[in-house]
Amino acid sequence: MNLPSSGTPLVGSDTRLRYSSSQIWSGAGGATVTNPNISSAILMTNSSKGYGYYLTLSLARSVGNLTTSVAYTYSKVKSINDGGSIAQSSWRDRPTQGDLNSDEIGYSNFYQPQRVIAYASYRKEYGKNFASSIGLVFEAAPAGVGSYTYQGDPLNGGTGGNSTLMYIPKTSSDIVLVPVNTGGGAVTDTRTASQMWNQLNNFIQQDPYLSSHRGQIAERNAAVLPWFKHLDLNLTQDFYMKSGKNRHTLRVTFDIINFGNFLNKNWGIVKTFSTTSFLKYEGIASTSDPVNAGKPMYSFLYQNASNQIPYVNSYQDNTSMLSRWQAQIGIRYIFN
């Protein structure tokens, strides 16, 4: 409630409103009772916007000791806000295309547009006291979603940065590029605007979402990561024992999670974003630059600033446990 509704439209292809101030009540000149410094005053209300649906097609069949199943799910989920730990962070951390107070809907944080899951298991009892089974579970789905946002606060909304969705330039005339830290800090970037545009343009071209939405403002969580493919293995051995009229079972299990990665180090790898904020806001061009006066300035960040290596690929390997094989042994005693 402390965010002004007034401001000045940005100059250039991106004409979103830049707020005149990030606070109505900022305590300028010294905070008093009648001139308070209000950081956050959040008003939460209900809304009828937002929706979600899931469609699943599943096929299953059992033949003798063999059981198989495969299912495909398509979903679409949009919401205004997925929530946070407190009211202030729920507002601050929601990327928007413009008005930070609008009830703008976007894809949900955990939106998974498609998913395939299949399994097969074979179980055989033998020798009156034994049973063995082998099972495989296969899963394939996009590894997540993300929002392309600016680093910094070009709309002066006071969110602390990374909450303004990016305008995706079509040509070099759509964006004013300057060296990194032009807006403050040590400037060690020696690239020209032309060199920076070539690097930025190449990065946009190789990205499936960015290249197909040039000249538009990115949508929240609309960038979808590549599909991952995981295969899990289960081996189970049952030992049956008689106790009076009851049969008890000693069950020993062995699982390899991400079995594909166990077989080949290049299989079962999950991808993540190299960055979703590769453009840093560097300020508004002054009137001393009559061609660009009033336009927001941005720098194309380095992936490795020390060696001045720019971002080239949108995705990189996720080196967490999601991309590694794991094994476990289990023992269970079942009373019948």
Q: How would you concisely characterize the structure shown here?
A:
Helix content is 9%, strand content 38%. The protein has helices spanning 87-92, 193-206, 208-211, 259-263; strands at residues 7-9, 17-19, 51-63, 66-79, 106-107, 114-126, 130-142, 145-146, 176-177, 223-224, 227-243, 246-257, 271-273, 279-284, 296-300, 302-304, 309-310, 315-317, 326-334.
Structural class, from helix and strand content? Answer: mainly beta
What's the β-strand tally?
19
Average residue-wise pLDDT: 93
Order of helices and strands: EEEEHEEEEEHHEEEHEEEEEEE
Count of the domains: 1
Low-pLDDT parts are none
Determine Rg (CA atoms, Å).
27 Å
Describe what this molecule looks like in 3D:
With 336 residues, this protein is mostly beta strands. It has one domain. Helix content is 9%, strand content 38%. The chain contains 4 helices and 19 strands. The strands form 6 sheets. Strands 3, 4, 5, 6, 7, 11, 12 and 19 form an 8-stranded antiparallel sheet that branches. The protein has a 3-stranded mixed sheet with strand order 9-15-14. A two-stranded antiparallel ribbon has the order 1-2. The radius of gyration is 27 Å and the shape is elongated. It starts with 6 loop residues before the first strand and ends with a strand. The model has no long low-confidence stretch (mean pLDDT 93).
Lay out the secondary structure.
Blueprint: E1 7-9, E2 17-19, E3 51-63, E4 66-79, H1 87-92, E5 106-107, E6 114-126, E7 130-142, E8 145-146, E9 176-177, H2 193-206, H3 208-211, E10 223-224, E11 227-243, E12 246-257, H4 259-263, E13 271-273, E14 279-284, E15 296-300, E16 302-304, E17 309-310, E18 315-317, E19 326-334
Parallel strand pairs: 9-15
Antiparallel strand pairs: 1-2, 3-4, 4-5, 4-6, 6-7, 7-11, 8-10, 11-12, 12-19, 13-18, 14-15, 16-17
